[in-house]
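Re-run requested by the PI after the first attempt was lost when the workstation crashed. Everything re-entered from the original request form. Ligand of interest: S-adenosyl-L-homocysteine.
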Amino acid sequence: MQTIRIAKGKEKQLLRHHPWVFSKAFDPNGLDDGIVRVEAYDGSFIAWGMYDSKSHIPLHLLSWKEHETIDASWWQGRIRESVLRRKRYLTGSDRQDTTFRLIFGEADMLPGLVADVYGTMIRLIISSHMAWERKDIAVTTLAGLLHPSLIVVTTDSNYTSIEAIPKSALFWKDGAYFTPEGKLEAVRFKESGLFYEIIPGMGQKSGFYCDQRENRKLIERYAQGATMLDAFCYTGGFTLHALKAGASHVDMMDASEDALHQALVHIHINQDQQTIPSDSRGKVTTTCCNVFEQMRSLKENYYDLMVLDPPKLAKTKSQAETASRAYKDLNRLAMAKIKNGGIIATFSCSGAIDRETFRMILAWAAMDAGVELQILDTLGAGDDHPIRISFPESEYLKGYIVRIIK
Ligand code: SAH
């Protein structure tokens, strides 16, 4: 068994159960990739970890229990526990949510492994080399527990190069991987009783942001009779809820033509299913654009309600400052353009920008726009995306519902 000695003074984060250790904390010379016993400078046990020289995080801590053995059955056990924690999403006769997060990486003590459920399909999203090497354990364990019709193994494009993992997707069905011939059929699922579809695979339209479930529902409170802007709408989750609640008009904006097309497909599906009013299609427009630019030419005193849900603008801590400026600019323009008394639901999904910083950004934006801002609600992801307190990065989604007073 290999041992890693943590340099004196560098052990605090490890003792607090933060799972990431960078190479400044130990000497990687002569280490082989694999399970390691991690010790403090005095030789006392801290945790079991995985040393992986191919990863941008060379040491991931896995267990703080000395008696545990990190083998295949340990991984299976962790996956099973994670699934059991989502029991309420998996049971019940009239389930309104058939999409949810089954495994949330580090927050479920499984570094780099995320799994989302879409109806009868499971999608794995892998962001660490270690999790990539254990994908077969994840696939067979989840198949044995949940009997999905299809499992798609994808990698997170933000991490493919820094973790030396491939960009391609793997498809698994009936006990084996297979190569699809042509496009796979769309998979339909429900969130809060509304219908959505994805095309299994990689890239646009192959995913769905189930972390916004609770916030999409909340928007209904403010949408009745409203003229709304759904900025960064993707496939229209917020728009569908606004229409359901009686919005009079919604302008959807996104940089992806495919996503906007799919948003319209979702409106048609839900009209047919009578989950939104039958005249909904006539109440929406779509604009394919760069929202950051488009905000400058937005009509003034026109919108009652705006949703701002940009992509992750800071991928790392080093990008936090530039990203803060972009968040501020976006929110400042929204505040300046919205009607007096209008409501903005504004989000950041950058793990590198914490909740207090995001709130500060909104304060600066309000000051520059010359408006008063009232916070009406503080938002995050649902309970299928738990925040592990020793891993603050798991609180990546932050949002506020604010009222603008001019
Ligand atoms: N609100 C959506 C999720 C948004 S994800 C939902 O509820 O499902 C972020 C979206 O921003 C993606 O659809 C992406 O295509 C879009 N996007 C990224 N950069 C953009 C830009 N500069 N202008 C407009 N849209 C952009």
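Saved to the shared folder this time. The first strand starts at residue 2 and ends at 5.
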